[in-house]
Q: What sequence folds into this?
């Protein structure tokens, strides 16, 4: 038997496939191949960098699906199914939006592959796949399953090994898909199994892709003590409450930690409270992360600050202040992400109840939705203003002058040649990808997914409305009133700008071009497509 493992791309530039030059190994597919009995042949195709040979013989296509690549995943599934190849989808999106995925696959897999994949393989051998496999989340790779890293060779991934120490997180931030998927639980691997996996690969730089590497401080300390003799350099993702624990901070430094993705999310404690970001609120009182940032710097950590922007107390001005904050602390990287409503999260449910979801409530399926555009009606600005404010931060952050200015920190980037190397090699890559990805469309074919029936949530309206009531007014009536008024007129120039997407320098400086309707099948209004670049990561995590 042969199984074809697929990692879908997010989408396309205006007229061609987007090739992610900062792509990393698709660890989940390596793990699934590692769980597959050796008599079954596994091949891996990564849509981010290569053509998928649909006509090659195979017995099962197994696709890993996240919300951002769902539309593309459905297109890929359709190709296989047309050729009679059964398709199974697994990952975050099938787990959090199973009914939608079932419309596009023969079978869906809920939860972690470790627990029922063997049954999928058996059923596939007998050509009796079930419609749904319901597995649980749990300790990753129990028994020391080794990912099939040989499948990653020759695909041009960044030279960094992806690995897991834990999965899940104990916190419950209201926008976070992790918290829902893992039900606020953090699952920790056996230390000796992780150490064996480090020994089994040949790189000295590891990215622990944990949702919150430091969710459990005591487990992390035990692991870090054992990690010190391995003499590797590593990065991960972790919550900022690490700075409350001096012993943990020392161990991070001693074990070779170069830095972590940290969810700062917001500089306004009212936002942090309303999103339930417990990890970021200290009893010491609010000092805009000053104490935490100094502790991080004193351990020479090169952090990747991640912000979610568009919370209810945010304004255009406070969003722009986030850029000043990030520049002040000279973070290694920063992601200025628009707050995104992911299905099954408390944030999504709240915005849905309040009638504030845009793009028919399913932005990830909408043929006109573009990467890094607002997908809900913010409280204190229009969706376009939110999109543009985030673009402003992202654009300024990724400019060469910014990279140059931020480099001058002797406690972090200039503390050692390795750190400077990381700073100088990865900043240009991420900046380039950020500019490329901004405003990208999802999927390759505009009409491949029929969105007429995917809108149980609300009638579409333009994303272009102006603020119509003062902050704090009922968002439902505000959004509806704004929708009824429609947006700025969309003329031929607007249509052209939209077709061009982001691309031009004048778009970058103007920040705004008028775009097409929120749903071309049902509306003729306009929306805004700012040009620009993307801030790499975020939308939940740590
Ligand atoms: C590392 C990581 C990244 C890396 C990239 C890694 C890579 N290889 O390319 C970076 C930092 C670049 C990144 C970027 C982004 N990421 Co990311 N990322 C992660 C993270 C933390 C870990 C992924 C991982 O490798 N995990 C280890 C593997 C083994 O676990 P897994 O993927 O969950 O797979 C297991 C199960 O889900 C299941 N499974 C998965 N697929 C399949 C398929 C089949 C057939 C079966 C049976 C089972 C199965 O079994 C696997 C083994 O247990 C996840 C969170 C998470 N826990 O997965 C977020 C996550 C996937 N990312 C997310 C997002 C939003 C993004 C960005 C869009 C952020 C942004 N705004 O730019 C970008 C773009 C992603 C893209 N598609 O290009 C979201 C997706 C939300 C959602 N609802 O789908 C997640 C869930 C984080 C979150 N907090 O919500 N990301
Ligand atoms: S955002 Fe981070 S800290 Fe909050 S629940 Fe998600 S992973 Fe945990």
A:
């Amino acid at each position: 038997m042969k199984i074809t493992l697929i990692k879908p791309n997010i989408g396309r530039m205006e007229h061609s496939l987007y090739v992610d030059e900062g792509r990393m190994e698709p660890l989940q597919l390596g793990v699934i191949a590692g769980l597959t009995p050796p008599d079954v042949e596994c091949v891996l195709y990564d849509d981010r960098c290569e053509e998928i040979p649909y006509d090659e013989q195979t017995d099962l296509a197994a696709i890993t699906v996240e919300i951002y690549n769902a539309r593309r995943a459905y297109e890929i599934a359709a190709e296989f199914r047309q050729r009679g190849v059964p398709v199974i989808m697994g990952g975050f999106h099938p787990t959090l939006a199973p009914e939608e995925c079932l419309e596009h696959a023969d079978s869906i897999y809920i939860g972690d592959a470790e627990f029922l994949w063997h049954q999928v393989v058996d059923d596939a051998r007998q050509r009796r796949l079930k419609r749904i496999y319901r597995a649980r989340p749990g300790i990753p790779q129990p028994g020391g399953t080794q990912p099939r890293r040989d499948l990653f060779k020759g695909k041009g991934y960044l030279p960094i090994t992806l690995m897991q120490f834990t999965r899940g997180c104990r916190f419950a931030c209201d926008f976070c898909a992790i918290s829902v998927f893992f039900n606020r639980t953090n699952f920790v691997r056996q230390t000796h199994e992780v150490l064996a996996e480090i020994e089994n690969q040949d790189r000295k730089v590891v990215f622990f892709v944990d949702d919150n590497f430091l969710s459990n401080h005591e487990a992390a300390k035990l692991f870090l003590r054992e990690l010190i003799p391995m003499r590797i350099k590593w990065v991960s993702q972790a919550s900022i409450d690490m700075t409350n624990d001096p012993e943990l901070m020392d161990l991070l430094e001693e074990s070779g930690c170069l830095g972590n993705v940290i969810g700062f999310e917001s500089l306004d404690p009212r936002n942090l409270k309303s999103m339930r970001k417990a990890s970021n609120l200290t009893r010491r009182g609010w000092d805009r992360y000053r104490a935490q940032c100094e502790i991080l710097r004193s351990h020479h950590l090169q952090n990747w600050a991640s912000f979610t922007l568009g919370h209810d107390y945010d304004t255009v001005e406070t969003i722009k202040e986030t850029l000043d904050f990030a520049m002040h602390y000279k973070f290694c990287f920063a992601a200025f992400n628009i707050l995104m409503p992911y299905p099954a999260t408390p944030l999504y449910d709240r915005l849905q109840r309040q009638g504030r979801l845009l793009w028919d409530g399913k932005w990830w399926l909408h043929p006109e939705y573009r990467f890094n555009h607002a997908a809900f009606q913010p409280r204190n600005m229009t969706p376009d203003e939110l999109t543009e404010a985030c673009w402003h931060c992202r654009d300024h952050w990724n400019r060469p002058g910014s990279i140059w200015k931020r480099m001058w920190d002797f406690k972090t980037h200039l503390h050692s040649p390795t750190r400077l190397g990381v700073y100088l090699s990865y900043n240009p890559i991420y900046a380039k990808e950020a500019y490329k990805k901004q405003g990208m469309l999802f999927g390759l074919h505009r009409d491949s997914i029929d969105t007429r029936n995917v809108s149980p949530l609300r009638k579409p309206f333009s994303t272009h409305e102006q603020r119509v009531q003062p902050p704090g007014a009922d968002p439902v009536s505000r959004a509806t009133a704004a929708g009824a008024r429609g947006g700025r007129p969309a003329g031929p120039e607007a249509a052209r700008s939209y077709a061009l997407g982001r691309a031009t320098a004048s778009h970058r400086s103007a920040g705004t071009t008028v775009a097409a309707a929120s749903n071309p099948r049902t509306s003729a209004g306009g929306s805004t497509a700012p040009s620009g670049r993307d801030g790499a990561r975020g939308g939940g995590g740590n």
